[in-house]
Amino acid sequence: MEYRKILIKYGGNAMVNQELKEAIAQKIKTLQNHGVQVILVHGGGPFINKSLEDAGITSQFFDGHRHTSPEALSCIEKTLKGEVNSSLVNLLNREGLQAVGLSGKDGKLAIAQKRWHLARNEAGEESQVDLGQVGDVKVVNPLLLKILLDNGFTPVITCIASDEKGNDFNINGDVFAGKIAAAMEVDAYIVLTDVDGLYQDYPDPASILKEVNLKTIPQYYGKAIKGGMIPKIESCVAALEAGVKKAVILNGTQPDQISDYIINQRTIGTTITQ
Ligand SMILES: Nc1ncnc2c1ncn2[C@@H]1O[C@H](COP(=O)(O)OP(=O)(O)O)[C@@H](O)[C@H]1O
Ligand SMILES: CC(=O)N[C@@H](CCC(=O)OP(=O)(O)O)C(=O)O
């Protein structure tokens, strides 16, 4: 298949060092040279962990979502924008791209709403968890991103957004990326993390599931799909259900996987199929 427009979600766990981030930036430039428009959405979990620790703020995860107090949110926003986003924009610009750093707030490209998280215990009982200032994406306004892409700019977007009243929210990077991928009607949604894909028996890499069908996903929750994999898979499902043709989880610590998948069309990673 021909890829004209793709969204890459770059997870913080795959931003291991500067060389690796540079290699990812080079791959994005290669894709652009091949006529592929790229939207880059990023998180930065390990960088946030460090900033919160330095500030003496503790945080806890529920099914891959970080409970976020107002005090933590301020620290998270500074880290994602001032540290992670700014560094990625810089690396892409150095490769010769024209990168534009954004969050959901810019041009109101994503409007958030508070997330009421539904947690399930081992007995299968559901309860609502208040995650504080954690949001979901309510609406995406694609115009700004279209204008940027059509004029040769590379949007680099981090997962902070406000609701209509201007309240700020921390949104899981995968959840945020899946919604943008859907609204931008990309040809492929690529999730870069620090493992080769979804493993049936984590952490055994030999147990990688090469293909998982939307219909069979529910049987993996609580088994293969745990922790950080929950929002990743959920975001792939959301993107596919909204019409995105391909969703795949690749290993961002092996940057060649990006060109292998998009340019050489090799079957790698875990593909979530319709
Ligand atoms: N079945 C599984 N297969 C692969 N990874 C898994 C699985 N279950 C949980 N994980 C964890 O999910 C992590 C990736 O999610 P996350 O930590 O949120 O990364 P990122 O920063 O890329 O978003 C992996 O590093 C791994 O520890
Ligand atoms: C609500 C929530 O969990 N927000 C995430 C945002 C960053 C993120 O998702 O980073 P990765 O893509 O590296 O995992 C957090 O605070 O860690």
UniProtKB/TrEMBL annotation:
<feature type="binding site">
    <location>
        <position position="170"/>
    </location>
    <ligand>
        <name>substrate</name>
    </ligand>
</feature>
<feature type="binding site">
    <location>
        <begin position="44"/>
        <end position="45"/>
    </location>
    <ligand>
        <name>substrate</name>
    </ligand>
</feature>
<feature type="site" description="Transition state stabilizer">
    <location>
        <position position="9"/>
    </location>
</feature>
<dbReference type="GO" id="GO:0003991">
    <property type="term" value="F:acetylglutamate kinase activity"/>
</dbReference>
<keyword id="KW-0067">ATP-binding</keyword>
<protein>
    <recommendedName>
        <fullName>Acetylglutamate kinase</fullName>
        <ecNumber>2.7.2.8</ecNumber>
    </recommendedName>
</protein>
<feature type="domain" description="Aspartate/glutamate/uridylate kinase">
    <location>
        <begin position="5"/>
        <end position="251"/>
    </location>
</feature>
<dbReference type="InterPro" id="IPR004662">
    <property type="entry name" value="AcgluKinase_fam"/>
</dbReference>
<keyword id="KW-0028">Amino-acid biosynthesis</keyword>
<comment type="function">
    <text>Catalyzes the ATP-dependent phosphorylation of N-acetyl-L-glutamate.</text>
</comment>
<dbReference type="InterPro" id="IPR001048">
    <property type="entry name" value="Asp/Glu/Uridylate_kinase"/>
</dbReference>
<feature type="binding site">
    <location>
        <position position="66"/>
    </location>
    <ligand>
        <name>substrate</name>
    </ligand>
</feature>
<keyword id="KW-0418">Kinase</keyword>
<dbReference type="InterPro" id="IPR037528">
    <property type="entry name" value="ArgB"/>
</dbReference>
<keyword id="KW-0963">Cytoplasm</keyword>
<dbReference type="InterPro" id="IPR001057">
    <property type="entry name" value="Glu/AcGlu_kinase"/>
</dbReference>
<feature type="site" description="Transition state stabilizer">
    <location>
        <position position="232"/>
    </location>
</feature>
<keyword id="KW-0055">Arginine biosynthesis</keyword>
<dbReference type="Pfam" id="PF00696">
    <property type="entry name" value="AA_kinase"/>
</dbReference>
<comment type="similarity">
    <text>Belongs to the acetylglutamate kinase family. ArgB subfamily.</text>
</comment>
<dbReference type="InterPro" id="IPR036393">
    <property type="entry name" value="AceGlu_kinase-like_sf"/>
</dbReference>
<comment type="pathway">
    <text>Amino-acid biosynthesis; L-arginine biosynthesis; N(2)-acetyl-L-ornithine from L-glutamate: step 2/4.</text>
</comment>
<keyword id="KW-0547">Nucleotide-binding</keyword>
<keyword id="KW-0808">Transferase</keyword>
